[in-house]
Design brief:
Two copies of one chain form a homodimer. In chain A, strands 13-14-12-11-17-18-19 form a seven-stranded mixed sheet, with helices on both faces. A six-stranded mixed sheet of chain A has the order 3-2-1-4-10-9. A two-stranded antiparallel sheet of chain A has the order 5-6. Chain A is α/β, with parallel strands linked by helices. Chain A is globular. Helix content of chain A is 38%, strand content 18%. The interface between A and B is medium-sized, with 27 and 27 residues. β16 of chain A pairs antiparallel with β16 (408-413) of chain B, so a sheet runs across the interface.
Chain lengths: 540, 540
């Protein structure tokens, strides 16, 4: 007891030398704040705030009006609430003196995009527009612009637009142009009142620092910005006469490099967050891409797989090539100065979740985690024992086939097939899907040198070992549970000038365990045969 | 009350004019006795007796010795117990005076076959042989003679044996020759002591009438009897030198026509059953085939599908052709004077059972019958809504591909796929399998004129309607819950001379509701497209 005052004072003295940053990760259902020490990336406190309206996909809260199928909106006030609630909570939990916070960084789901006025006010917050569904942010998983996306893709091929090859030959219904064209065609009045069509990733930064910025990441991957330009007015006019000036009127803005300083924290945002006025606000970013520095996966050839409900693969390359079926390649899309490649598997954890919810009998559900139970049982089997081959196309296939209408396949069922057999086959199917993507990068001239994993699925050791065996490579794992928020904090540190660039900050603050899972040689060669069988069945 | 004595006396007087027969159906787990009125087939009383030893497939009861995989034996005393218990119980339940019973008929699972002495004693009942697994009856589903079956098939093709074409090109491991060759190779001493290798269908008749008979049905379908002969000694010697005289030593015996009188009930069997000494005992028969007269499906072109765990299709034809993938065609195999065709689907109810046990989540299991629940949900869907295509090869494919190593396939899975979707797809898959068989008969020159169904699955109205829609034909249904036992009773009536032949007896005693399910034209044409897709996928 006698020493306590001394100790406290000593801690305070040390803490006073430290500097801190806040990383903010805006997900689908909630936002997370994380307080991180600039010196070494130590994670000191975190808080999560659920969005009050969650995903708006059934009825519009303001009117009760039912929404059509495939719609998914959000309420921008829910994002601000994360600033007001999660940030102070995380700072309090960390015990850090807020005056020692030198920067704030953010990442967002993408493409989540909204219409605003010239000053950044969301149209849905203007008088009289709360009842107009098109006035709200469209969440990444709003899929009601498929018709528009198909026309955008088709016309690009017809006209031989040079940018279409940078996106594996297809523009997604989730992206900026498809959602904007849907807006124009379905609610021209709201379209006309839209002064800015802006990614939520950039809008939240605008809320923090008071000035509009646009980041290169979303502009490139979601906004079809390539080689210094967007799709031409001619092309846009051919899509729809009223769409010709879309880029010029509603998108155009100088783009900011990732890791850059968007501005200083405004009085209003300082009041919301409890952080000092004027601290650095980092340029906006996307959840998957921002995780790369957190996982120390930003050198050319370090592929980061963010494995959750779906898997997003991001990797830097020092050359520009067209990888078949990639989602996009963007100059400076992950860090300035390198080409950022992105690929994806449209269903991974979602498939396991679907399987557990719809296909697992009660005997397997007696207490405990069912994924864990199935993984344990499946993990005891020798490779190939179940006799099944599956294809993981339950939610389509993004890379490398780029066909969202594909569906899942299960071959080899017998009266002896048990749930753990099918579960293992599904895990293997997703691993084969990943191997196909890695092989495509290798063949295209941007070889994968290290395979690094982040995301919720890293916890499943059985699954990770299957991946190591199927890929025939060691698997490195991010050593943080908060990859995106940590990545955003790293960006904040760079924006605040604590490090000269993202690479230096990642080296000091990122966290990776190298080669946690190594391939078992016997399994690997057995999987060679199964993988060949799989490719044979799908003719790829 | 005053009239009661008169009424009783009047009933007695009428009853005294009636004659009755007993049908006995020996299944896999139990035997059933059914008392039937000769005049009109009225079913008056029934009783079931479970076999004390059931299926012996883990350890031999006499010694506790474990049995190898794929073995399945039975104890012949269990069959006799059915005579002693089920017959008197059924007669008592019927209220019929046993003195008015004029005949008894039987049917059995096949090929269930056993080694006996010259007087019909099962070897397993001889002193010192109770511990020898090969001394017991081998149940139809004993599958441990696959190696032998493969050699039998291969050698038949090598030598161009004429009979192989009558069996769709393959001799099953379940049949008489494969099981006997296994016996010879694995326990030559028991083989040497085997004086008669006899179908249980004929052995039970021997127990009833005291004389050995052999029926044309099992001899043809299971014992490779074609055109008046069995496989030659030369062929058998080439299989194994010790097998050359197998037919001559252990099988050969004049064959009896179905519906014939095997003999009169012995004193001993009369004591067991409580039936009169000397009444007609009908020639033995097989469960599926004996059901044809019960379902009034014995004219050429009336195909009977006995739908249970698997489906057996039997149909008479007035010409001999080779139908691709049939299980067998036998002269007089169903009724004398016609060619009896048999085909099969190796998994039907078994697939639905496997699905329910291994793939259905708890939400679907809240009380009530799960098959009924899934059928109700599935029945609400328009054709093709689930987007799935399945192949019902979970237990191999008997007809028309004749490949027991095939396995099940499921294509079209999405994250929205629900259990009722898969259930419906599996039902449809079995219906497509049936359509393939019907098409093969049509194309081969023995066209299917009427599709009649018996067996446990007739109760599923949803399934029956899918079959009608897929087959694009009306479906008739047997109007008895006891098809095989009723068929055996019909045979007993013929053997007793109450009718001139099976056709006449079937007309009077058989029961069929015609065209209970009729195809919905819109569904039928939608299924045309799905069926084409299915055939495309399997290249048939």
């Amino acid at each position: 007891m006698i020493n306590q005052p001394v100790e406290t004072s000593s801690v305070s003295a040390n803490a006073a030398c430290e500097r801190y940053v806040v990383g903010l990760d805006f997900g689908t259902l909630s936002g997370r704040a994380l307080v991180v020490r600039v010196a070494d990336g130590a994670e000191l406190g975190t808080a999560v705030h659920e969005y009050g309206h969650g995903v708006i996909d059934r009825t519009l809260p303001a009117t009760g009006q039912p929404l059509p199928a495939d719609w998914a909106l959000q309420d921008p006030e829910d994002y601000r609430e994360v600033l007001r609630v999660a940030v102070p909570e995380a700072v309090a939990a960390s015990g850090v003196d807020p005056r020692l916070v030198i920067g704030i960084g953010t990442d967002f789901t993408a493409c989540t995009v909204l219409p605003t006025t010239r000053d950044g006010s969301p149209l849905c917050e203007l008088a009289g527009l709360a009842g107009r569904p098109h006035a709200y942010p469209k969440l990444w998983r709003h899929h009601a612009a498929q018709v528009q996306a198909d026309r955008i893709t088709e016309l690009a091929h017809e006209r031989g637009e040079p940018w279409i090859g940078r996106y594996g030959g297809r523009i997604s219904s989730e992206w900026e142009f498809a959602k904007a064209l849907q807006l124009l065609e379905e609610d021209p009045e709201i379209y006309a009142r839209t002064e800015r069509w802006i990614e939520a990733a950039d809008w939240i930064v605008w809320q923090l620092c008071g000035v509009e910025t646009r980041n290169r990441c979303t502009a490139g991957y979601k906004g079809v910005y390539q080689d210094g330009q967007r799709p031409s007015p001619d092309y846009l006019r051919a899509l729809h006469p009223g769409f010709a000036d879309f880029v010029q009127d509603k998108l155009e803005h100088p783009l900011s490099q990732l890791g850059g300083r968007a501005g200083g924290l405004t009085q209003r945002a300082a009041r919301w967050t409890g952080l000092p006025v004027g601290i650095a606000v980092a340029v906006g970013n996307v959840d998957a891409h921002v995780t790369a520095p957190a996982a120390k996966a930003i050198d050319p050839g370090q592929l980061l797989a963010v494995m959750g409900t779906s898997t997003c693969h991001v990797m830097n390359g020092d050359v520009l090539v067209e990888v078949p079926g990639m989602c996009g390649v963007v100059d400076g899309g992950i860090v300035p100065g390198l080409w950022g490649y992105e690929a994806g598997q449209s269903g991974v954890g979602d498939i396991f979740g679907w399987y557990v919810e719809n296909c697992v009998p009660p005997a397997y559900l007696d207490g405990g985690d069912v994924h864990e139970h199935l993984s344990t049982l499946a993990g005891r089997q020798p490779v190939g024992q179940h006799g099944l081959v599956a294809l993981d196309w339950h939610n389509g296939n993004r890379s490398v086939l780029v066909d969202h209408e594909l569906s899942g396949v299960l071959v080899g069922l017998t009266l002896g097939t048990r749930p753990e057999d099918v579960y293992r086959a599904l895990v293997e199917a997703t691993a084969f899907g990943t191997r196909t993507i890695v092989a495509a990068f290798d063949a295209a001239g941007v070889p994968v040198q290290e395979f690094v994993v982040a995301g919720g699925l890293v916890k499943n050791q059985f699954l990770m070992q299957v991946y190591a065996d199927v890929l025939q490579r060691p698997i490195s794992v991010i050593a943080s549970d908060q990859g995106p928020a940590l990545g955003s904090a790293i960006h904040a540190a760079v924006a605040a000038g604590a490090y000269p660039d993202i690479t230096a900050a990642a080296t000091a603050m990122g966290k990776k365990d190298v080669a946690v899972f190594v391939p078992n040689t016997a399994h690997a060669s057995a999987y060679d045969a199964l993988y060949a069988e799989c490719r044979h069945r799908v003719n790829i």
